[in-house]
Write a structure and sequence with these properties.
132 residues, Rossmann fold, 47% helix, two-stranded parallel sheet, mainly alpha, 2 strands
Length: 132
């Protein structure tokens, strides 16, 4: 993928690699929660495709800094972070600081998979944002 994604597509079709990637995410999902021993029954039905995930990650190294443009966006924005998220908490704080009309909500008892661990709370927060 790092050298040239086209041969990778020719060697392994997207559908085949996406299925492997989805399985990998399912295996890794418990590590993205506060309760790794508790089964997650409501994992998202759609997962990112392997190639799109890899290319998006690679783009992060080359695209211009989005923060100046984000500072000019004045729309209500909800930044959610689970207290056990494996991502650095500073990332969520920075989004909340950069987006002028953002609200940061840190949710106890969840990790990176807020919608799977607390679907009712997640849904309620999103609906409240949309009703503003």
């Amino acid at each position: 993928m790092a050298a040239n994604p086209c041969p990778a597509h020719a060697l392994v079709p997207d559908a085949e690699l996406d299925a492997v990637f989805a399985r990998l995410l399912t295996i890794a999902a418990p590590a993205a929660t506060c309760h790794p021993g508790r089964p997650l029954h409501d994992l998202p039905n759609s997962v990112p495709g392997f190639c799109s995930n890899q290319l998006t990650t690679a783009d992060q190294l080359t695209v211009p800094d989005p923060r100046p443009a984000l500072r000019r966006i004045h729309v209500p924005t909800l930044v959610l972070r689970g207290i056990c998220d494996y991502k650095n908490p500073a990332i969520a704080r920075e989004y909340a600081e950069v987006l002028p009309d953002a609200t940061l909500v840190t949710i106890r008892g969840t990790g990176h998979l807020i919608d799977a661990e607390q679907p009712g709370r997640h849904r309620g927060l999103v609906i409240r944002l949309l009703q503003r």
